[in-house]
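It would be a great kindness if you could assist me with a short task in structural biology. The full record is reproduced below for your convenience:
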Amino acid sequence: MLTELEEAFAYALKHDVVMVVGSGNFNRSSPNFPAGKMDVLCVGGIDRNDRRWLNDPIMVGDREFIQGSHYGKGLNVVVPIDQLVFCCAARRVPLPGDKWLAFSNMKLRNGYQWRTGTAGTSNAAPYGTAMAALIRSLRPDINHKDVIKIIERGATDLGDPGWDEETGYGRMNFYRSLLLARDWPKNTQSNNAVSQGPGSPQPE
């Protein structure tokens, strides 16, 4: 019997929704459910040097704790998630319009937040959502499995050639993916194929 969460994902996929998830933040060798088990787009995080995002170890009580982007089977692509600038709601305290107000782990100015000391794959999933939305707006006839394939094939390869555990198919590349989507055939084998789980090594 499926859990409520599994039923929700299954319902969305049955209705051809592109589901996007972050890989997870605890440096594990298996991305969070449902990556690798359902046809979802799983997005991991990298730093500014195109390496898998990994924080220095910290001690929590008597345990060593490491934050890092989950990796392994089920990971499709990666995106930069460190040192990001976000749009945010205006604060009650007026801030100078042309200068950043610095705190220990962020900087603020009117309408923007610059996270200087934190990261996480919750920052990665919106990249995938935006990419899927752009592909669907360009080619609404493409099913969710092909949207994921386009994002994988359009990615800029990192690490070992092809798919690898650390970076999946590589860094998401909006330009290349949209070019692929533009010329993608309406009917492909994936329309009727049984998925083996995105993020697993696939034959060319």
